[in-house]
Amino acid sequence: MRENACVGCLTASASHELQNALAVIRESAGLMQDLIALGGENIPRRERIVELLSLIQQQVARGGELAGGLNTLGHAWEEDDGDLARILEEFVILAGRMGRMRSVTVGLAPGESGLRAPSAGLALRVLLFDLLQTCLEEAPGCALTFAPARRDGIPGIHLRVGLARCDATTDVLRRLDAQLARLGARKEPDNGHGTPARDEPDGVLYYFTACPSATGHRA
What we know:
InterPro entries: HisK_dim/P_sf. By secondary structure, the protein is α+β, with helices and mostly antiparallel strands. 53% of the residues lie in helices and 17% in strands. It starts with a helix and ends in a 9-residue tail after the last strand.
């Protein structure tokens, strides 16, 4: 617990400082945009400057998303429960680069609203990380979509695995099923709204896994 508190507090503290630094950059870029607008069309290389300032603002916004996700992650160790949709959104933001390195898209679907994850904390993040890591290793090139869901009254994660860009042979699909099953993910026949799964190379697979319970085990 002390190790979790140490890493969490340092991450949360650093993310606050990062947000402050990004705010200064955002305000400075905004001021430069105002000055360029006042200078009219005679400023040398005006279009290039405007383009770069716009890019700075875009990257600052992206940095703000990441800093916000890091801040939430930094407080995860002290959570008793949490909004499942918010936790999934945070995870998708932070895990995007991991996916891109293996040509895997990581996305978020609306799912069921208002679900609370019991004992969210780090246990839920570890489960999400394990699900992602399994798909990266067994099915590079796939498209992953996470959504909050509930089965038999139990809150959990609905995972959509798109295989259109994945070299999904029968052996690959078998290994993927086996590894996800080890994490408590069970295959579902459809997406929960009637759209059937297609267990084939260019198809879509659906899985559900329950959130970890207060004891750290799957509910």
